[in-house]
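Good morning,

Both structures are done.
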Amino acid sequence: MAPSPEQFTRALADTTRLRTLILLESRDELCVCEFTEALLLPQPKISRHLAILRDTAVVLDRRAGLWIHYRIHPDLPNWALDALRALAKGCIGKQPFEEDQKRLAQVGTRLTGTCS
């Protein structure tokens, strides 16, 4: 079930969740290990926030062996996708979002197909 506007905005109200969604907005999917590298946050904290986003149907997860990959939920309503795109555009060049993007670009785990 798609999130209501209130559920969606509550999900985005936390900085960690917003940072994860800004990273996901321009990518097909990311692994938890990629989030930890990009955000410089511990895995349990990132997993806890991704679980909230999953429970509100903002993201969808996929298990691949030991790793869990996340993507924007394909059934997210257009109004929510538009809001997310607008937020991502507004975060360009602003901290901590700019540094998150730079660190993610340097993560080489996708090249090998495995996470550490």
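Second structure follows.
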Amino acid sequence: MRARKLVRTRIMMLVTLVTLTVTTPGSFAARRFQRPNVLLVTIDDLSTDLSIYRNREVVSPHFKRLASRSMRFDRAYTQFPTCNPSRTSMLTGLRPGTTGILDNTVFFRTLLPDVVTLPQFFRQRGYFTMNIGKTFHGVGDKSWDDLSSWDISITPGGRNKWRSGEGRNLTNDKIAWARWVASDRPDADHPDGRVASAAVSALEELHSTAEPFFLAVGFQRPHSPFIAPKRYFDLYDLAQLELRDPPAERSDNLPSATTKRDARIFRRMQEGDRREFLRAYYACVSFIDQQLGLLLDTLDRLDAWDDTIVVVTSDHGFHLGEHEWWGKNTVYEPSNRVPLIIYAPGVPLRRHRSRRMIELVDIYPTLVELAGWVPSAELEGRSLVPLLEKPVRPWSKASFSQVKRKKFDGVSLRTKRWRYSEWNAGENGVELYDHSNDPGEYANLATLPEYGAVVRQLEELLRSVFPDN
């Protein structure tokens, strides 16, 4: 008990150099086991389509550095491409249809007062659990933080001086969030820079003790508005950026999947606007990559790789012009596919990538098993430990996601070859895409008679997760 209070006191002293909001939930449980530490890093709105591990356009050396020593899951999918539903699903191990969290307005404890979250599971078993930044939705709002999950939760903040610099709105102020700022302030003046600094201090202090910890670090960029220090904007030449223009021949199915007003505005963006959008987004990715590098440097300096599990992922993806859409909350691949990198000490890697279909809801049982426990049967995900050990093993699994846009409810599944989606139980449209020759999902095959058997098979599979759709 005394040791845990000492750890908390030291951490609080270390992070006082960072402007923050602090929540300290109270008493600590006794520790019983020496287990591997856990570092969970979540990044908001991180597109996998830009392939941070291999895309030469995107400057992301530290993502590549971590991926080179870890397992990279190339077909990982969110369960809901919006912040609150996705994070609730990932951190409870339950699908959005089970949690009931389908938008950004309801705190999950309102509907799930007794659910045991992922960090809470570790805390109940003697881990010191700490959150820095945005892990659950509602960063900076104490009423949205889950006191039962954390021993300490901090939200580095500060004055808005980091917003000063050159920038503009890319839609003539018609969409408020679509703006960028090349800040004239250094990394440390930005909230995510403060998150990284606090996380480095926390890692140093936590690793100096002999007690296991679960440290969650949540970065907000590249979430809009696209604000990063100017030096990251300077990495990119606007003229060299490759736009994702749709093919001339494509099915007209976008209106059901997006907000019509915003879709019209995005279609009117000029080429220069779109290139600025890409540069601003990439700049934010490179900014976060640098912050991730600080964490990796700390693990190197502490020689902590032998006893620390590292997971890096995002809550959902992000369209960067695909289907003439810039944003999230669609049933398409760019919105639902997410990066996922897992480093697990003691698990020898035969390969460094797996192309098996997996979901964010799988992270909870995976970390439980890696720490030495048996995942609960109530969890709706599947442990990825077998794929860490053998990434090419047979793996019978599809990935399921859903969206909600005013009067449109969409559900979708992705198999190795197909994406199948329904809107309002099919009343407002059905979509079928063949990824073997249409990875951009532009040719809807659902109404073609020759694909009837495929549609019926995938519809039955969809009902296994969405029986009431």
